[in-house]
Design brief:
The complex is a heterodimer of chains A (120) and B (328). By secondary structure, chain A is an all-alpha fold. Helices cover 68% and strands 2% of the residues of chain A. In chain A, helix 4 crosses helix 5. The N and C termini of chain A lie far apart (91 Å). Chain B has 14 helices and 9 strands. Chain B is elongated, with a radius of gyration of 28 Å. Chain B has 328 residues and is α+β, with helices and mostly antiparallel strands. In chain B, strands 1, 4, 5, 6, 7, 8 and 9 form a 7-stranded antiparallel beta sheet that branches. Chain B has a two-stranded antiparallel ribbon with strand order 2-3. In chain B, helix 12 packs antiparallel against helix 13. Classes of the chains: A mainly alpha (120), B alpha+beta (328). The interface between A and B is large, with 49 and 79 residues. Strand 1 of chain A pairs antiparallel with strand 3 of chain B.
């Protein structure tokens, strides 16, 4: 009976370990992203409007997603991406157009190009 | 009299001809400045690109309303071998209030699926080069008058005919003349991205920007993909010490301490005074239980100073503590 329980617990632990995402911020090791962005990091310290990840996550939340997935989505961004997303979130283009509109506009453009071409 | 009239007529003809030539030049240069990249492409096929390509194996996911982002992303990801549908990607990239997807999130979402995402240089020639190398390219077009942003996936082209082939919206095989595509694409600043498996390097990748793309993958947390990506990078650019640091970090994260040590030793031969290399080598040696060796290395890093001095002091402190623990 005891060994059955031990086996179950072992299996559970293995599953949990597999599920646990790798932690890249290891004690003592300097991360590569820090190296890559070392130059811009110095600039960033002097930036007045520095946005934290939770700032950006709550901005995303206001655009209609729940807090857990907002947090997840921000977690995969690099530091630089977090800053540019925060700065431009409302002005950035968001690809969205419905296909019908796209086709109509393209047809109009094609007709216009053809028209001017034959007139020349 | 006659001679004067003749001269007048001739001069007015010359003026008319001049105006005509000027008008032609204006039209031609107007077109070239409106569509600079299409004009440049007409000079000749970009180096390394085939004349005619169509990646017919790229799957097609017809978009539902406003969701061209998830559809385009699923197309590129599935082409790279990731099993995913647009519905899976909606919670990762779609913003209901904006009724669309942001470019930065498109790049990040591909990383979450173990691929390296890379934003192409704003170049039509590079777009053709990527397709020619077998990689479908996500492009951001603006097809409307005000807010008609739209993601589509370029999967082929015919250079002679000047046509680009796309999976776009509900259209499985849309053919757009280069000029029309440029008009719509130019408005996003020629934004384009690819997502490739970590053992590949995009045809148009630049060394430093590709390195940053791999470093960005570290955040997504898939250490094995990161390790493969850095090894592939170092095969192409063996002298890059930052990539060596990245590879060693991936080995370290996976518990492959011996491999991490040998990569870092090789890096110290290239850049003996790099504080980061020395710090990470000392940490690795300490994790291997060789604290005396680690101490020698960290002292060298501490002597150099620089922006990572604080991290170095911390590493040194831990090593000293481990040594004194052992002595007790």
């Amino acid at each position: 009976m005891k060994s059955v329980w031990a086996g179950t617990i072992c299996r559970l632990l293995v599953v949990l370990m597999v599920w646990t995402p790798y932690q890249f911020a290891q004690a003592g090791m300097i991360g590569t992203d820090q190296v890559v962005s070392a130059a811009s990091q110095a600039d960033r310290a002097t930036l007045l409007n520095f946005f934290s990840r939770s700032d950006v996550a709550s901005r995303l939340q206001t655009l209609g997603i729940d807090s857990a997935s907002a947090k997840d989505r921000v977690a995969t961004l690099t530091d630089q991406e977090v800053q540019s997303l925060a700065a431009q979130i409302s002005s950035m283009p968001a690809g969205a157009d419905s296909a019908l509109g796209a086709i109509l506009i393209i047809a109009l453009l094609a007709v216009a190009v053809w028209y001017f071409w034959t007139r020349m | 009299m006659i001679s004067v009239r003749g001269r007048k007529a001739r001069s007015s003809a010359r003026v008319a001809a001049g105006v005509f030539i000027l008008a032609c030049a204006a039209l031609v240069s107007g077109c070239a400045s409106l569509l600079p990249q299409t004009a440049a492409l007409s000079e000749g096929l970009p180096g390394g690109a085939a004349g005619r390509v169509e990646l017919t194996a790229v799957p097609f996911f017809p978009q539902s309303e406003y969701q061209c982002g998830p559809a385009a992303l699923a197309t590129a990801l599935a082409a790279a071998g990731v099993k995913v549908t647009p519905e899976d990607l909606v919670p990762e990239v779609y913003l209901p209030e904006r009724k669309g997807s942001l470019q930065i999130e498109m790049l990040a979402a591909a990383r979450r699926h173990g691929l390296v995402s890379y934003q192409l240089a704003p170049s039509f020639a590079d777009l053709l080069r990527e397709i020619s190398a077998g990689t479908p390219v996500i492009v951001l077009q603006n097809l409307g008058l005000f807010d008609g942003w739209h993601y589509a996936v370029a999967i082929g082209y015919n250079y002679e005919r000047g046509g680009l082939i796309l999976r776009s919206g509900t259209n499985e095989r849309q053919i757009l003349p280069f000029a029309i595509h440029e008009l719509a694409w130019k408005r996003s600043g020629y934004w384009a991205m690819v997502a490739v498996p970590p053992d590949r390097i995009p045809a148009s990748a630049e060394e430093s920007r590709w390195l940053a793309s791999i470093a960005a993958l570290e955040r997504a947390g898939d250490a094995k993909s990161v390790r493969i990506a850095y090894s592939t990078f170092l095969e192409r650019w063996p002298g890059n010490v930052t990539a060596a640091i990245g590879l060693a970090n991936a080995h370290h994260a996976l518990g492959e301490l011996d491999a991490a040590e040998s990569v870092l030793r090789e890096a110290t031969r290239r850049e003996p005074e790099s504080v980061i290399v020395l710090n990470n080598l000392a940490q690795t040696l300490s994790d291997l239980g060789r604290n005396q060796e680690a101490l020698v290395v960290i002292e060298r890093a501490a002597a150099a100073g620089g922006p990572f001095a604080e991290a170095v002091q911390q590493t040194r402190q831990t090593i000293l503590e481990k040594i004194s623990e052992k002595a007790r």
